Structures are given as structure tokens and as C-alpha cells.
Amino acid sequence: MRKNTYDFSGQGTYTNIKESLDIRDSDILIARTTRIIPQKRQDRDIHLIHKLNTLFAQNGSGRKVYLAVAGDPDEHPAYFEVLNRLARELQVEPFIKFIGSLSHDYMPSKEKSMTIEDLYYSCDLVSFLTSWGYDSYGNPVGEAISSQRCYITTRYEYYLEVYGQYGFEAPIMQISPEQDGLPDDAFIDDVYQLLNNKTLMGEVAHRNFSIGQRVLSNNVMSMLDLSS
Q1: 154: domain CATH number?
Q2: d(Cα 178, Cα 43) in Å, to the nearest integer?
Q3: What pLDDT, on a 0 to 100 scale, did the predictor assign at position 2?
Q4: How many domains does the chain have?
Q5: What is the pTM (predicted TM-score) of this model?
Q6: End-to-end Cα distance, the chain
């Protein structure tokens, strides 16, 4: 099993990709880096984007909320079509950006291309609204923490064991084997309130980063006998 470690050095040089995605600096970008398969439940993110944009508009804000999904759209074409159809039905197509699979910046590349680190650097929030039965660590949560970005997640089966027990702060969508559906209004409001409090977002990201430096180590992660 590959040990999961995260870079807390803050030494990387990254590129803001908002402009290349036609997103204004003043708008909000939520990053989702995961495989595009039913188990990952990107439909939750699309519903969230719809609800958040509605809330911003209702409250007189000109800010828009975008979702960038980094994953291979060809892995599960039927599910990819389900997500696109949902975006059309909810009329949020312009706000959903499927940007394909991205590599980490430490992976060899023949040319300079967009990386996962660039996306995290550019985003305001990292999403991991996976299903209850997700059977691994949830690396995007650790990557968000080490990138000093706030995150949102579900309370998937292993969340408490891997992250929750250490005191990381985040809006958490409560799910269970029996209740594994769409985000409820309480969770959506938690996310909305966080996005509207830049000072709090900075404080939460800093506190999470400090905890992560202590506990998201090689030794801690390797003790968990979960498939990577």
C-alpha cells in the first residue's frame, strides 16, 4: 500500500487558472479532484452549485459559484452524461467545468500543463462529497488541508478515523448507509455562510494546516489499513 503523505512546505510555485476557465477573480471556485464514477457523487456538487448561485442571487450578490471537476470523463461515460444532463436541467451548465484528469506537480511531464496543485491554489474551497461506502482515505481532504484551503465533505465511512478525530474544521454533510442522498438545506447554508466570511475561511484553513502538520504524517497514514 502506498503511504499517503502531503506537502506542508508551501514551497511550490503555482499558476492561477481562473482566467483560463473564464472565471472572474471575484467569483468563487470549488475544486473537485476525483474519479468521475457514481460512487463519488458529483451530482451532489452540481446540486450544491445550483443552490449556492440561487442564494447569492437572492441576496443581491453579483458573485457566481463555479465547480471544476478534475477527472477522466471517459472512465464512466454513462455517469458523465448523467452529470451533464443534470447540469442542463438545473441550468448551471456555464458554472460546471469538467477539466479532465490532472497530474500532481511532482509527476514527470513533457510540457508545462495544469496540475492538481494549480487547481487547489486557484480555488476557494475543495469539495469531497463522496458516498458513504467510499473505501479509501479521501486524499483530496488531506490535499486541501496541506494547500491551506477550506474543504467540505460528507461523513463517509472512514472520515472520522482518517480526519474527523483530529479536530479538522469543515462543513460536513451528514450521511449514513441508509441516508446517502443530496445535500440538505442546513449543509448548504453552512457552506454559504463560510463562503461569505473570508476572514473565517482564512482562520479555518490556517488551523487545519497547523493540525495537519502534526497528524497527516507518513506514520499516521500508514497505520490505517485502507486501500489507497
Answers
A1: 3.40.50.2000
A2: 18
A3: 36
A4: 1
A5: 0.90
A6: 7
